[in-house]
Amino acid sequence: DAGVIQSPRHEVTEMGQEVTLRCKPISGHNSLFWYRQTMMRGLELLIYFNNNVPIDDSGMPEDRFSAKMPNASFSTLKIQPSEPRDSAVYFCASRAWEASGNTIYFGEGSWLTVV
Amino acid sequence: SQKIEQNSEALNIQEGKTATLTCNYTNYSPAYLQWYRQDPGRGPVFLLLIRENEKEKRKERLKVTFDTTLKQSLFHITASQPADSATYLCALTTNFGNEKLTFGTGTRLTIIP
Question: Does A110 contact chain B (CB < 8 Å)?
Fold first, then answer.
């Protein structure tokens, strides 16, 4: 299995631009998570989906952030407009529903720099 | 407020010794506690899971303990090797079936040859 696939791996963008991060979960996994990691705040859960339905988006920092999962094999996290404080590593992760203990599998991350 | 604290930001251990990392939590009643390893530039990778009714779990050179009275988990790497150098994260789930996995800030472990 290829694991969780994220793109782009690195993105540098100017403040005010729209950023779209993409994720392909592991085939057969039906939960998908978006995390953000910074030095100051560590790894924070932004939103998660079960069976393509958003379940909890309480971690989404503000209305500039939105996430979608149009089908079981694809999700996007969009930031519009982007700000320098959005600079972070954004991780997508997925989980098989029948897995006990909530073990999740992470992608390699999308490194975002907003200048 | 709920907190997960990993007491050391960084830990240096001599090769061959046992490395012990600490995870403390407050205002949680975790159902599961997990440990992940993260290498620079990579995503976290699952290592071990321990349930609230388990006191100890082992996997090869790794051992995790879970004390719900002390609200603490200890993560041990025996016979440590330079390849064990990484950041180690603990994570909690509070309810069975709850999807929210909350992470500590991590401990950066360096094994010195």
Answer: no
